[in-house]
Amino acid sequence: MNNQELLYHYFSNSLTPEQESVFKKLLETDAEFKAEFEFEKGLQKAIKSHETDRLKAMLNEVETKINKRHNTVFNYRNLAIAASIAILFGWFGYNTFFSTNYSSLYEDNFTEYPNTVYTITRSDDANSIEREAFVAYETKNYQTAIEKFEALSADETKDYLNFYKAQAYLGMDNIQEAKGLFQQVVAKNESFVAEATWYLALIAIKEKDKSLAVSYLEHLMANYSYNKDKAQALLKELN
Amino acid sequence: MHRVQENITVEDLKIGSELLFKRIYEDNRNHFINFAKKYHLSQEDTIDVYQDAYIIFYNNVMQGKVEEFTSSITTYLFSIGKYLIFDKMKKNKKTINPDFDLSLIREKEELEDMNLDLDQEALTTEQVLLKKHFATLGKKCQELLTLFYYRGFTIKDIIETSEYTSENVVKSAKSRCMKTLKERINSNEQ
Predict the structure, then answer these.
(1) Helix ranges, chain A (H)
(2) Which of A45, A55, A66 sits opposite B55 (nearest CB)?
(3) Which distant-in-sequence residues (6+ apart) come within 8 Å of B50 by Cβ?
(4) How many CB atoms within 10 Å of residue A92?
(5) Is A207 in a helix, a strand, or coil?
(6) What is the pLDDT of residues B55-93, one digit of tens each?
(7) Domains along the sequence of chain B with CATH
(8) Calpha distance B103→B39 (Å, rounded)
């Protein structure tokens, strides 16, 4: 067996006891053999280190994947927690902690403003469209009422029309249109300014804008007598 | 999870399947993290230790130092991991209990009983150079030398598991690879 064969067997861990003693002797006596052995032994360590780096890189890949997976789970979990809190808040906290249930305040205080301007039963039908509009309004056919009010709007002498049109929109739960019209009523100081202010306060409550609601109510109480007591009660509820 | 491991033999691992390598790592990971909790390492350190322990275990399997599983893979990983944790704490000068050193010795002995090579020595300058030039060799040379020196394959083993057809082909291929490697190292040194 030549020296190279001995080295093969050494690195494959298959030296027989006899070969092993020859091997040891050669290391002591043959400098060239020793140098070759040292070189190959070093190469073995170098390859192992190379292999370790490769394995480590693979494991880091696995870690990255695991972390991604955890983050996804984590995010979903956070979302679930947030949702639970939101539900708890909406259901429980809302009523218990803040005791301001805006939508119930709105419902409790909202009553549709009655038709006080147009007597439907009157015999003269000079303005049949206006009549039709109020008939529709009183029978809660708000869409028809709005269309009729729209047709009448050109007639600017009737400054209560915006107010009733706004009422019709409120009846249809179209808050934005109603709000715009009430604001016009207030701005132009048309009929029903106090009433419009009251409804604007209610809309602010429905929109959970507490400070705006408070300022409308305070303005109402300071300047008008309409719904003064109700406004007072509402303010108490809000504060 | 455990069913997979019970069926895994050293021979399965030795085939060198990346899939199995990753699978066993993942299967034991949470168990190891929980086990390491009592040593109060950071999560990062724990993962580091686990990876090192796993690679040491794997290297030992691949180098034929684990002939068959006398313990479960988990036991191997925990024993190596425990040793590495103590070693890390020693380096960090952090002791957790008075019998720290005793535990360390015990762990090391246990590992030696398992015939495991912990191989924590840093590479010498020459070895670093060898590693650098080994990485520049062609894929076939790298594979062949890895079979020889890392896996400890005999020429017969190599013929069985690779495309080399005869002993002479293996021998001449190997000596060509060694020649190239030596040439590259010599040219680097000059």
Answers:
(1) 3-11, 17-29, 31-88, 94-96, 102-109, 128-138, 142-152, 161-171, 175-187, 193-206, 210-223, 228-238
(2) A55
(3) B29, B32, B33, B36, B77, B81
(4) 10
(5) coil
(6) 999 998 888 888 777 778 888 888 889 888 888 777 766
(7) 2-113 (1.10.1740), 125-189 (1.10.10)
(8) 13
- Which amino acid, residue A159? D
Record: contact A8-B154, CB cut-off 8 A: yes
Using a CB-CB distance cutoff of 8 angstroms, which residues of chain B are in contact with residue A52? Answer: 55, 59
Across the interface, whether the CB atoms of A62 and B22 are under 8 A apart is answered yes
Q: What distance lies between CA B138 and its chain's CA centroid?
A: 23
Nearest of A43, A47, A48 to residue B56 by alpha carbon: A48
Residues 6+ apart with CB under 8 A from B186: none
pLDDT per 10-residue tile (average), chain A, 239 residues? 89 92 94 95 95 93 86 71 69 53 81 79 66 86 88 73 90 89 84 90 88 88 86 86
* Side-chain half-sphere exposure of B117, counting CA atoms within 13 A: 14
Tokens found for residue A191: 């009929």
- Burial, B115: exposed, middle or buried (Cβ in 10 Å; 0-12, 13-18, 19+)? exposed
